[in-house]
Design a protein that fits this description.
The protein has helices at 3-14, 68-73; strands at 29-35, 40-45, 55-60, 63-67, 79-82, 86-95, 101-108, 119-121, 124-125. Mean pLDDT is 88; it is low at 129-133. It has two helices and nine strands; from the N terminus they run H-E-E-E-E-H-E-E-E-E-E. By secondary structure, it is mainly beta. It is globular. Helix content is 13%, strand content 36%.
Length: 140
Amino acid sequence: MEWDKIWAVNRKVIDPVVPRFTALQKDQAVLVNIAGAKVESKDVAKHPKNEDIGLKKTWYGPKVYIEGPDAACIKEEEVVTFINWGNVIINKINKDSAGKITSVDAKLNLDNTDYKKTQKITWLTSVDGAVNSDKGALTP
């Protein structure tokens, strides 16, 4: 079977009914410090187009992680969209002496709901006390 046919079956049969979860590759995760973010959780849909699948608890906070390749694609002063949260303005991209991104400083811009021309980024929060607990927060 050709890959395009496998993807077509996936889109038609599997994709509409499978819940969405987020995972990051630990050795490539980049810390994002988000000014103005508070530690809180919200229940969000497990699937963006099928609420019948149910809800999942998503944690928010001032320290989140994104994938290294996503960090490499963003620019300072750019507005990016953190999926299931909202828009964030990238203030500073911090790099080590070798040029590797070590962290990103950003601020929430939740009043800006224009998501059309923004890069969409998946993320995970680092919430003290929620890791390995029944609260469900994840961290690399």
